[in-house]
């Protein structure tokens, strides 16, 4: 091959302005920075990007939705694909030296064929503007990489270690045979009529889609990009989005192809048939992630017949199933969002998309119920000619042989699908769903190894519902109290801000006095905000290798008492070395609030440690706070209401400290009111932090209010008065939740009101400042 000609051709193609959104002539202009390390350093290396898991994907999708509140879901679903999906972008063998002229990437991977045809032939092009809101260019690139499917077969040099990861997955190898040298085929021009009556011409220039040959070296375990880790198997989430977009823009072409099938399963099967052009067809390739905590690279088990992997199959099936059920979904709630559908479908809980059976763990059962072999054969047959006519395939298929290839593709797929052994739905459901909502302050000891603490913190954040509806966090250095991340509910901020370089930048020991200074001032500022009403737990997590010294213990014991009295809704947890007794000066309940930490390079050792922290955080109820009280509990008698949302068949747990109801003028009461067209059940207890209807006082409400007299709840001193524990359970709903903080359309809105209550400080209020000053002096004198 004359590489000088190829270099000229590649540079010329990349220099052509893009007249259409989806093309094969080069990387889309919006996406060029995603492949330009001068624009975004390190962006082309997956290790420098956030994990490709469900929560990160949903965060980016929600932020795009929030930036386009007036765009209909019909347009939005198509726009994100037209603007941000482009598959098959591969590193060229050529390396331009001036990245301002050309980048060494181009869409010549075979995945570019089908994606381009799917978007142009089977999805209506939207002329609406897509705003990107607070997403920066790097965020858009993360989303692009997640939804764009590419097989990178480049020999990396790390195969001796990475290929083992894919081999650990269940082997489903099929008979491999040598690929014949095939000639490229010139593509034709594809035309289709748009709704506005104009005809769009899509110029698909002749390209070389690299096939294996004896003279070229390829990785034994190629990397598949555009796949997303879920608890129910890895999926190509771009296929899911295409299925939903097709369903919102449903149409049929003149060949009878239903675009819901064409953009998902039927289209992918037809593509595989044209790529292999042989009988029998080889369907499916599994693989494994570099990590289940920080999934960034997905390694395939083999480097042949990768045109329809297990991941493609799951994504295609899921996209088609959701598309087929969309009419039912949309009728229940016509303002539904893409993020809500995907959240409900892939949720690790048992909720499903308005139906407990419509979820990813039921994939195979749903497929057998909604998709027949006969219909699938018809749809593959309807799309294969269009793909072959417009696409650029390595061989020329005799048109009369289409039916033979279609039958082989459908038959092999039907026999292969049951062999994909993904986790299925449990026969009996576990306990009700619980949502965590917390404000987590993490203080990090930098003497711990980055390779241990980064996966642990990452797994904790992924497991406590960090998003705009629930939890938020801040990561601090335990050495000097400096923020590593801002106060945020974005998971991506952790992965952007915290890396090995940042970790190693901080030196010195874990400074308990500085940690407590930052922790107390942060929480005090929150309480002094006269709009803050709680609705979340407040937790300080100290991740440390060093237990307090004897000199530090007196100071910490004093601070522990002050926190108990003035920050009654603050829980301090320690993830550290040693034993619970080593941290008795820090923790109110060492046996519950200390989690043992050990360092390891094996994530199988680290994940249980992180899970122990997650489990403890989930047991801590949300606080209800009177904003009139502030840090010093100086406010007068008042009434305060907190508006909250509970998901269907889900528990929210709350705690009201006695500081907020110990005193009051007139009759004090606690009122609960259901505001949505649904019903809730509330339970109250004075000694159980998670009350339920088994042994506590409970009542069901439906758009009405209930009042509980709490005037006699406290006798004696405030230290002898127990908190009020409250649970709210979502019983029924009419799918009417449209507020910004409704995570799902069936979320139920309610209010909790404290009426005629007065703020009451703890018993050491008079000496609090003196104790603070004296304890610091004593601590400093002992240094």
TrEMBL record:
Domain of life: Eukaryota
Signal sequence, start to end: 1-22
Keyword line: Membrane, Signal, Transmembrane, Transmembrane helix
Transmembrane regions: 762-781
Keyword Membrane: yes
Protein name: VWFA domain-containing protein
